[in-house]
Amino acid sequence: MRPPLTGDERTQLVGWLDHLRSLVRVKCEGLSEVDAHRVVLPTSPLTNVASLVAHLRWVEYSWFQQNLAGVPDTGQTPWTPDGHPDAEMLVDDVPLAQLLDEYEAENARSNAVVAAMDLGDVERAVVRDSGQASVRYVLCHLIEETARHLGHLDIVRELLDGGTGYESMN
Amino acid sequence: MTEVPRPALTAPERDQLIGWLDHQRSFVRMKCTGLSEEDAHRNVVPTSPLMTPAGLVAHLRWNEYSWFQLSVLGVPDTGQTPWTEGGHPDAEMLVDDVPIAQLLDEYDAECARSNEAIANLSLDALEQGTGNGEPASLRYVLCHLIEETARHVGHLDIIRELIDGRTGYTKLEETA
Questions:
Q1: I want to staple A71 with a disulfide (CB 3.0 to 4.6 A). Which of A65, A117, B71, B137 is the partner?
Q2: Is residue A2 part of a domain?
Q3: B chain contacts of residue A140, beta-carbon cutoff 8 Å
Q4: Does A3 map to a domain?
């Protein structure tokens, strides 16, 4: 559900992000396990439904836990110094249902971080040379990144089984 | 056209919302760089024939018009839009005979008009053109346009890759 038409800034930013997050699960409804991992773009084998969901989950972890909350990576993420840059997307053997549940759990953890900060507060971790991003910057970025990947899911899903829109794909 | 950069890391609310929207808007032209006229009108998603790069650019242009001119400012539709009662619901996407360069220019011009329309409006300002429906605030409209534009850029990502394998942005510039 979209946020209220006249909600304040926090209500809008978190509300639009929550709305988009919920659409990720909707776009996966009725998908077979085989189709969830099926490659439809020969030039980008990691652009499959399961990998996109895993990517969205770890993107949230990266921005909200690592950057905003300042949680150090002591091995709990899929990324390693010389490892695959898209390691989080290597989920051929992970059921889509599990990936969606993990994504949903991550969304709740992200919201908890945001709830405890002001919109003008900045990242606790030092992420880049150019400075610290604010909570509002991070929320805006996650809105557009989640929406962009939803666009990927739209086309990938349609190529898999013709499913479009939001009505149950069954 | 080069990418409009992201807003400043600690920019205030208004600059974030308009900045992220301008950033997304600039990707539209970038994703079409180097496309032949034929490819710009090529359908690669058989179940959705209107989803060509050209159709998407035209849709994005008229989406801006609809939200900022019709809804936010309350400009009445007296025939200047592609939509007619009883007409094709996606009439704005029927652009097989319109050059992609023209569609991109029209999109850029529409985005400039959108920004002009809201330049002196508060983020709490309500839509004037929703008839009897509940009006949204400008803040709501901007958030929605960010996510809708980004979503369609996501469509362009996949459609472009299916057309000629090109991805990202720097590779597109190399072909110019």
A1: A65
A2: no
A3: 7, 16-17, 20, 146
A4: no
Give the closest of A3, A7, A158 to B48, CB-based: A158
Domain housing B87: 13-174
Q: Is B121 domain-assigned?
A: yes
ipTM over 0.95: yes
Residue B4 lies in a domain: no
pTM for this structure? 0.96
Of A9, A120, A148, the CB nearest to B150: A148
- Where do we find the tokens 């110094």? A81
> How far apart, in whole angstroms, are the C-alpha atoms of residue B162 and residue B39?
10
Question: Within a 13 Å sphere around the CA of B107, how many CA atoms are in the beta-carbon half?
Answer: 30
Number of domains in chain B: 1
Tens-level pLDDT at each residue, chain B (176 residues): 568 999 999 999 999 999 999 999 999 999 999 999 999 999 999 999 999 999 999 999 999 999 999 999 999 999 999 999 999 999 999 999 999 999 999 999 999 999 999 999 999 999 999 877 899 999 999 999 999 999 999 999 999 999 999 998 755 555 44
Query: d(Cα B117, Cα B111) in Å, to the nearest integer?
Result: 10
A-B CB pairs within 8 A amount to 121
